[in-house]
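Format notes (please read before filing issues)

Several people have asked whether sequences and structure tokens are stored in separate files. They are not. Every record keeps both together, in the order shown below: the sequence lines, then the token lines. Line labels are part of the format and must not be stripped during preprocessing.
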Amino acid sequence: MGKLDEISESLGAWLIDQPVFFVASAPLDVEGSINCSPKGNRGEFAVLGPDRVAYLDQTGSGVETIAHLRENGRLVIMFCAFAGPPRIVRLHGRGRVVEMGSAEFATLAPRFAEPDGVGVRSIIVLDVARVSDSCGYGVPFMEFTSHRPTLDQWSRRKGPEGIAEYRRAKNAVSLDGLEGLGD
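Then the structure lines:
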């Protein structure tokens, strides 16, 4: 595995071009639940600089990443090449949650394709401390056909009030009882 000094312009373009990425986080408690989540990238990942990235966080059935970031800030984002030359890139660092309605959210929002979508709940910003890449020889070739429309359809059916109620019910605390999203 190689260590890179920063996110170069060419690496940034490669990251943005990947249709899926994965985020992983963990609580401090060794008995806590480690989280790894896939994220579709429909213009939802942005390179903010050579050592800072962000992604648009959609409403989901859990709130593990947000809860772990609030507790300890540790986060890794991983990208895999499923087409073209083999490659895996991991971005390690300290993440934080930028909630909708904040001034920082408004500043970052134009970096994303649809920052005002019904299902959007926050922006996750990662201050990158380590960029590493590895061969990816074991990652299979997979053909990308399209993103699933299901999350957007679900969010639109619920509407803003239904999404807010869902977040209150499902996103207030993590599996381990850590603080998630407030009202």
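For reference, the curators noted about this record: The domain at 2-170 is CATH 2.30.110.10 (Pnp Oxidase; Chain A). Residues 150-170 form the longest helix (21 residues).
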